[in-house]
Structure of Diphosphomevalonate decarboxylase:
Amino acid sequence: MTTQFIGKPDFTISTQTVSESCPSNIALIKYWGKYADQIPANPSISYTLNHCKTNTSMEFIAGETFSVQTFLAGNEEVKFAEKIEKYFRNIEQYLPWILQGKYIIRTENTFPHSSGIASSASGFGAIAKCLMKLDDTFTGKISEDESLRKASFLARLGSGSACRSLYNGLIVWGETEEVEGSSDLFAVPYPDTEIHEVFKNFNDWVLLIHEGQKSVSSTVGHGLMKTNPYAERRFQEARENFVPMKEILKTGDMDRFIKLVEHEALTLHAMMMMSEPAFILMKTGTLEVINKIWDFRRETGLPLFFTLDAGANVHLLFPGDDPEDQIRVFIETELLRHTQKNGVVKDVMRF
Ligand code: PMV
């Protein structure tokens, strides 16, 4: 099944420095639970962000003993280097030259370092793109489509959700009969002609409720789905949710979109609470914000809603170019006070 990604045995390496940039993404139907080799337990769909990005430069020193040195915003990160070393060893069959040199990798995120915004998707996305640039130089060019697909395949092996960050717009990862060409091995763009205009111009304002390390990592969280008694039902539900999602995206039905997206976010966190051992990543501020959003919607009927990542931050979603005054004032006066240091990262999804 993965043979199309096996690397070419003939290559000529040379010392090179390449740079790439990759955005983060936010899932609408969530991936939570996986099988061996980063195969997702259910399909997922996400929006790729425009501003939250990782910029990476990769220096490859050909012929030196294999080693990896990483710098995040100028500071050496030994733990990250160990992770990347392991990752490179793991993908050697797809890039046979990969262990034939030394790497110095410098990365910078455009979003605050301690914001709690996941950097693994944009981080592995950028690394996979750098690797494909080197591969093009060492083994000969392949088409842009093939190169992107292989970058998505490689990013998945670093961090599952990273495979969706390689493309702009609404992106699907995981096989579902609702989306032609979808695969467990790499992500594909959701067909543009099937997307109502209202979903092509959206905002994601991330309220930074809790900055800093999460108490339970995604890796541990995915692992706990193996013994979660609700896991199978959850995987089934996510698969089923692609049916209404497809209709909603086509027709532009905002009310149903809001209901489905919020349900997905709360289900993700419900799964965490039903794990053994249980864990909760939401904070008091997360719950206060959710309740205030619901009250606001009840009172105004305006399309302001939320999704959550595996963390305490709240992603505020609303359509259009700029927030209507009522939404902006509500966020500033009612929601910002639940963040640490008035923290909000304003991103957009435009395509
Ligand atoms: O890619 P990972 O292993 O960091 O998992 C990400 C999982 C969620 O962000 C919670 C959901 C998703 O589909 O992105």
Observations:
- The mean pLDDT is 96.
- The pocket of PMV is lined by residues 27, 30-32, 44, 118, 120, 159-161, 218, 222, 268, 309-310 (CB under 6 Å).
- The helical segments are 78-90, 120-139, 144-158, 218-224, 231-251, 254-273, 284-300, 325-335.
